[in-house]
């Protein structure tokens, strides 16, 4: 094998379619002509060096570590490159070279072998073979760091002889690959995207969604990083030095790119730079920008909880329908706090968290009809006052306040006792959506106290957040346990004062006044608005209501509020080979991550799991499912409002284990008695698609990397409803559909589809036509109709509607283009209800039968009627088309589309439900 470029010896010491098409082709020709004139200087090359590092780091993966992150490593494009792409479809190198292999797995996984993994994943070994080095630079001419990029993917391999140089290189490489994206998201985190990128309704929605959850002042952004690092002792001091060096690297690249005019072309298209004179400014980054970025990432993927007001409204609807006692029983059966049939990641032991109190105290349910959402946006002008802008605001509000966050991650980990090679195997990664450029970026970092390769969120890549070390790998899935509570603060004097521990106290007003005007990139007409948040000691106001006739504001308080930077120490530890030496030290590192994640680990001999997050200890007998009164007796134990700290559950109370025979995680329930905030953790969950397959592999033994990839890939193209619920529906219909030829035909097609595995897969690679296309169409049409017909008659319209706000009825891939699917839906309810109506045993049943009011014949009639209706719907009716797809195009409706965050776009790929960034690892030795 070709010799690898050596690594440095070590000195020992952690959504919605929001952006429009970025540039209209009509404007590209004129701009391109001007920019290719003699007045447009060519981008200058960066200084290069071929000098390599002094000593090698041992890689214990034995060429058995792979990863993939579509569409490609290169997320920056100059103005000329953007215009060429818009005019002729060309793309910069390494901007899309991981998209094809990623997409191909959906249709070619069936015959996968270990030898063919390279066809779908890229080598994730340390270093670069000498004949595969594409470039080597010393950023800013520094002698203590090099950035080597490989020919295959253009991933940066950063090697430093000093800690400062290493982190300087990480910052420089991040800016090389994602400067424009980083700039966007520091504005998103501050609620200031539209003045920077334009007033498109998607931009409005994005800044509103995130700023509502983290309305920080500049002082608070700085205090968060100061406080987090001050509390961490010597590691905090090192992290502060790392941040400063990382920022220096980013800013050095900005200066170099600005001087030589190879900065991202979006700065010109949005009016921040002049292509001819080079006037204008690309603002330097500082530490507060990193906190703003972290707040976005934490809100998207690591902040479980919320939804208490929606829970209260559905409980009240249930009590109105059935009476207090029976209504509460019905509500609890749909909530499924601790369903005994739910698939688990940690299968042994009990980890009680937020059990239902026998006699709850302090619950503050609203008076019927009194709840009103707190408006965020005020004083709209111009394009901010359009119907599209208003709709975007409504969607942003829903996304910010729901407990059902979507599009997360999965993991499959098998212990060495069950593998062919005798070493653990892991196939895992985060499901972070599909963007162009991607939110994550790949890198390898080698330097004093750092040795890792993997993915990091752009702008936070001073450490690898998900990846591998010298002899271990780790990844995460979103866990969703509840760290967000809603408090009812009693108002006094007026609507902007509240009782705080007996004193009438003014709320704090925090505002953002945003305005925008048309640019080449975004032609949205001029507009403006003010975002206004009223803050209390118990968090921002989200709703207003009355409780027992008293005027209140409902606020949300999350444990990570004012603590967006705290997790930096955990990620620093994960990158430190002297800290992570085995599963126990891995778990100790993840204990320092305050966001809510499931962490999975594998080395050559061991596997491990740990659930992270600052879980506040609630006051005794407080039910965190609902709003509670604000007051000392109902506050989190030890809560200090000055810095939002509290007493948290001890590390040993979090779900965790070492060397379980296998682990799966797909945002399912973590462990027995461990309540999660999202609804829907019942008898049917997409985690079952993994668990059933991995359990069968483990039972058979001799598991290979290819086996585990195939299990993941097959689950990723399987319709959960078809595999887990459809057989029960067909059982009820058995023999009863013959009288209606339309129903009989639909049953036959659905039966054949279920027998073939219930996949949403092409007939052949590139056909863009599904096998069993009619069955898929019928199922997509039938499910929402079926659910309503089964449950609404018994629940009544008001309660049914309230429950659908707690948990959506369906989450098929059709129309979303997001990839992630089947996380939230009513599949468990239908499964449990059908089994009950058929007289089968059900653990954790619904409070009463619903289909046909419990009568099997009547239930069968409901199914026949709704199936006949669904079968009669045309493809154009089921898949009505959108800005991307023609009506009736089933494959296109499911297809994954990379949401444009810059000037270079990508073609759609076949649907698959899998991590965006994914590793396949099997270590063969250990230090």
Radius of gyration: 27 Å
Question: Count the helices. How many?
Answer: 26
Average pLDDT for all residues: 92
Instruction: Give the oligomeric state of the chains in this entry, treating copies of one chain as homo and distinct chains as hetero.
Output: single chain
Number of strands: 30
Return the structural class. Answer: alpha+beta
Q: Beta-strand percentage?
A: 15-25%
Task: Tell me the distance between the termini.
Answer: 22 Å
Estimated helix fraction: 25-40%
Description:
By secondary structure, the protein is an alpha+beta fold. Helices cover 34% and strands 18% of the residues. The protein contains 26 helices and 30 strands. The chain has a 10-stranded mixed β-sheet with strand order 3-4-5-12-13-14-15-23-24-26, covered by helices on one side. Strands 7, 8, 16, 17, 18, 19, 20, 21, 22 and 25 form a 10-stranded mixed β-sheet that branches. Helix 1 (25-35) packs across helix 2 (79-88) and helix 7 crosses helix 10. It is globular. 59% of the residues are buried.
